[in-house]
Every structure is written in C-alpha cells, then in structure tokens.
Amino acid sequence: MGNVVVIGAGIAGIQAALDIAGHGIHVDLIEREPSIGGHMAQLDKTFPTNDCSMCILSPKMVDVARHPRITIHTCTDVESIDGEVGHFRVILKKHPRYIDESTCTGCGDCIQICPVEVYNRFDAGIGVRKAIYKPHPQVVPDLVIKDPEHCIECGLCYDICGPGSVLHEDKEKTFEIRAASILITTGYAVFDAGKKSQFGHLILPDVITSLELERMINASGPTGGKIRRLSDGKSPESILFIQCVGSRDMTIGRPWCSCVCCMQALKNAMLIKEKNPQMEIIICYIDIRSYGKGYEEYFERAKALGIRFLRGMPSDVLADRNGMTVQVENSENGEVQVIHPGLVVLSVGMGPANGTSSIADRFNIPVEESGFIRPANDAVDTVGTIRPGIYVAGAVTAPKDIPDSVASGESAAMRAYIDAVRTRSA
C-alpha cells in the first residue's frame, strides 16, 4: 500500500508520474493507447519557442520507461474503483495486443512485410499504417501492436518474427491494483469538424483540420514536412485558417474558448511562411487570444512575417470551378471579401476526451455541463475533487496548453504524494 495510480499518460500524466516516483513512491501509469505520450506526440513544434515537440516529450517518455518505481500499463482501461483515500482498489482491463511483450524487440520487421494499409489515426488520416504497426517511431514501450480487425492472417508476420513474438490469439486480462491516491489525467479530444458541415471537412479534399496540418508539417509525418493539397498533391499558393471551429459556439453547445487554437494557428502559419515566403496566409478570427508569457510578442512576430489577419468568420467554404471560394465580412470595417484559398485549415477546439463521463461515473465525481470533470473549487483547489484522494490534472478539467498541463500535473502529484506518505506512516 502507499502506491499512486495515474490514469492517462499524456504530458500531464507523465510529469505527475515522474514527480511522484522521484520522491520514492511507486506509480502505476495507466494508458488505453498502445504508447504513452498523448496528443503532444502528434505535434510538430511548441509555442512560443518553436521547440521540437518530441525533443521535449521523448526524453520524458524514456525516463518513465526506465524508472524503477513506475510501471506502465498500455492498452489498459479502468473497469471499476472502490475504497477511500489510502485504500483504493482499482480493477483494470488490459486489451489484447497480440504480441508477447516479454520477447518483442520492436525491430519492425513485421511492419515492413505486412501487405495491409489502413487509416492511421495517429496521422489524423493524412497517412496510413499497416495492420501490425507502431503508432509512431518513438513509441514507449517500444512494442508493435496487431490490429485484428484489419489483419488478413496472411502469416508473413509470424514467419519473419525471429523471437516468435506475434501471437495468433490473445485475450483480455483483468487484474487489480491498490493505491493510496489516484490521479486522472485523461486529457482531451479534438472537435469533429464534420459537425460544422458548412466548412466542408471530409467533403472538400483541401479542407483539413489543425491536427491534420500538424501531421503534414511534421518532418517525420506522412508528407515529410511538405504542405500539400490532398486533391492533387501540389503545394498550395495560399492558405486560409478559420479559427474557433468547435469553440465559442453556442449553436452546438460549446461556449468555451479552447485556449490553444489561436497560438497553434500562429505557430503553424509562421512555420509555413518561413519556408514558403511567397505563400499568402490569412487567419480569419473572432479575437486573437495571446494571453501567456511571450504570446503577444509571438503574435507581433507573425504580423511582421506578413501573415494577414482578417477579423471575421466565414459562413461557409464552397467549391468552385477553380478550387474553393470563401466569403468573409471584415467586422472591423464591414467590407465583404471573397477569398480563393488553395488550402483551408480549420482550427478545431478541445473537448472532453472520449470516455471522460464514464471515468467520472466510476469514480463518483461530477462533470460539468461541458463534459469536463469538475474540480473541487475552480478558484481555490483546481486539482482536487469531491472525493478525498482522487485528483485531476491537465485538460481533463478544461482546455489547457502544455505548460499549464505540466504545472497542474506537478500540483496534483504533490497532493497524491502526501496521501501516499500518510498511508505508509499510518
């Protein structure tokens, strides 16, 4: 007893686990995906410094894997929880990976030989993956996973695997762990842009989301870092960013600001403009919310690069004979402008992660009308919940950027550490 369970292994959960384990407390880190890392692993750069996202995240992921006081449970969901602070009992369900984790070396020979290609969720649909795969090259733990839904059982992966790690059959496993305290850091989900059908996502091939753009501009992504129109594979002459898609929108019940979208658009626009100075880039916005340290200076840098800011929201994106047409009323002067972008990027907002409400139900803690988990007190206790010993951090309570997610993870970690110490000394 005296251990801590961290549910969700994005940047907030990783930071919390490292902090707690660094103080001598054992941590069980639970992640439902095949690898830890969360959404941050999908990003190319981070604002406002434009540092490589994986250069920050990957060393932390490796530190987690090597830490003697952290046990990683991937492909795992929480089934139930009972007990009280100091004496929680957590039932976990581990989904089949169809890989012998004790012998797999992560060499990737099976990936190379697999003939099946399917939609790659990690690349947001811009790229493809095999039926046996790693979500990305820097996964932790360094293991492949077989997708039984798309596997055609050709047998090639079984034959080429030297250690014989690829399994014909695998079953779900249910097991129990005990903990003094629990952290919920299950993160967020990006808005489904198809719900705003007037913008044409998945209808017009050259309308993409901000997450799809992140994978496109990433040097290790499916296009090798090159901006391409999906309709013809050519580089667009102009790009239009449309902000607040799935944020600040009462018509779809999402009145909140998603916190990161303005800065993400600025970052990606600058990265593109620096490599393609001749390309016209326009950002249509309601308000530019550059609230953090160095963020306003970042905004000024974007304007100095020649990125154009148009205050107004397009009503729709329409196909025409030459590509696309977007009509926007400039709310600063009332002028109606007609734009013909080569590529449209929808800055999709943050919402509660899939399964957040079911997690809250299992833990008997409330969720807000928005679907985010409600902390004990928004002003005084932002990481506590109504149940002693259960804490929340990161974007599970509200949209947060990376620095704020890390800070909340550190705060929750210390609260959980105190509970664990008290349990050991009792």
Describe it for me?
The protein is α/β, with parallel strands linked by helices. It has three domains: about 5-95 and about 170-185 and about 355-425, 3-Layer(bba) Sandwich (FAD/NAD(P)-binding domain), CATH 3.50.50; about 95-170, Alpha-Beta Plaits, CATH 3.30.70; about 190-350, FAD/NAD(P)-binding domain (3-Layer(bba) Sandwich), CATH 3.50.50.60. It has nine helices and 24 strands. A five-stranded parallel beta sheet has the order 5-2-1-13-24, covered by helices on one side. Strand 20 and strand 21 (about 335-340) form a beta hairpin. Helix 1 crosses helix 2, helix 1 (about 10-20) runs parallel beside helix 9 and helix 6 (about 260-275) runs parallel beside helix 7. The termini are close together. The model has no long low-confidence stretch (mean pLDDT about 95).
Feature tags:
FAD/NAD(P)-binding domain; 24% helix; five-stranded parallel β-sheet; Alpha-Beta Plaits; alpha/beta
Count the DSSP helices.
Answer: 9
Strand content: 15-25%
Domain unit count: 3
Uncertain runs: none
Main sheet: which strands, in order across? 5-2-1-13-24
Morphology call: globular
User: Can you summarize the main beta sheet?
Assistant: 5 strands, parallel
Oligomer class: single chain
Structural class: alpha/beta
How far the N terminus sits from the C terminus, by CA atoms, comes to 11 Å
What Rg is obtained from the alpha carbons, in whole angstroms?
A: 23 Å
- The CATH superfamily name of the largest domain is FAD/NAD(P)-binding domain
β-strand number: 24
The CATH topology of the largest domain is given as FAD/NAD(P)-binding domain
Mean pLDDT: 95
Helix content: 10-25%
CATH C-level category of the largest domain: Alpha Beta
Q: Can you name the CATH architecture of the largest domain? A: 3-Layer(bba) Sandwich
